[in-house]
């Protein structure tokens, strides 16, 4: 943690807000450990929702100093002020609706699934809830959102993934594209963010986050490359606007799940840390 943001002994105490985690995969477990260790001031682990409660309970008993209850999505929303979705994308609505009806803050990691559920934004508007999409494995969303206050002419995202990160993607399976023995980079997709999300639902949440911050999924252009020469998930953004022209590249280390960048979980924790930080930096 940056030393300026580290809590001091003179900090005034206040009641920690309970955080509910839906899904205990790579990202969910990282967040659970951080909350359990008190690494996010003002927040505490309240409960979890998982498919296999026995397995989750066993993990928590072995890993956390204060294991919490495994509950269903309704109870998660009732117990917790924050609900964090770290589950498969097809569970987003089941997780989101109870949380939004309760007026909670909902943090969404499966941002691509939001495109299939725009009515959830209406629910949040009606109840005073908020849907938050962390930056994830991308960079520069502050610059994109700022440029969008003016006029953005074009946004392009070029994603390069190691072979293991793309194996099993729906587009590759449907078209019978075998990349396992690939010896040189191969562009497997060109199109907009909406199409990319359908073809690579587990790989391009970054494209959806970029499009939501900027000019939308129809106008945000995306290329996806299977690249045996890289060992990191690499994203290059090019933006042309009336206020600035900028390009950015990030190379992310993969987590123990090759489809998930290690920085995605850290981005989630940085997002939650801002909730009660005495100093908040960034748009």
Textual characterization of the structure:
The protein has 283 residues and is of the alpha/beta class. The chain has two domains: 3-136 and 263-273, Rossmann fold; 141-259, Dihydrodipicolinate Reductase, domain 2 (2-Layer Sandwich). Helix content is 31%, strand content 23%. It has ten helices and ten strands. The strands form two sheets. A five-stranded parallel sheet has the order 2-1-3-4-5, sandwiched between helices. Strands 7-8-6-9-10 form a five-stranded mixed sheet. Strand 1 (17-22), helix 1 and strand 2 (43-49) form a beta-alpha-beta unit. The radius of gyration is 19 Å and the shape is globular. The model is unreliable at 8-13 (pLDDT under 50).
Key terms:
2 domains, alpha/beta, Dihydrodipicolinate Reductase, domain 2, 5-stranded mixed beta sheet, 283 residues, Rossmann fold
CATH homologous superfamily heading of the largest domain: NAD(P)-binding Rossmann-like Domain
Unreliable residue stretches: 8-13
End-to-end Cα distance, whole Å, is 19 Å
Secondary-structure arrangement, i.e. CATH architecture of the largest domain: 3-Layer(aba) Sandwich
The secondary-structure element order is: EHEHHEHEHEHEHEHHEEEH
Q: What number is the mean pLDDT? A: 92
Share of residues in strands? 15-25%
User: What structural class should be given to the helix and strand makeup?
Assistant: alpha/beta
Report the principal-axis shape: globular
Largest sheet: 5 strands, parallel
Integer count of domains: 2
Number of helices: 10
Q: What radius of gyration results from the CA coordinates?
A: 19 Å
According to CATH, the fold-level topology of the largest domain is Rossmann fold
Query: How is the largest sheet built, in terms of strand order?
Result: 2-1-3-4-5
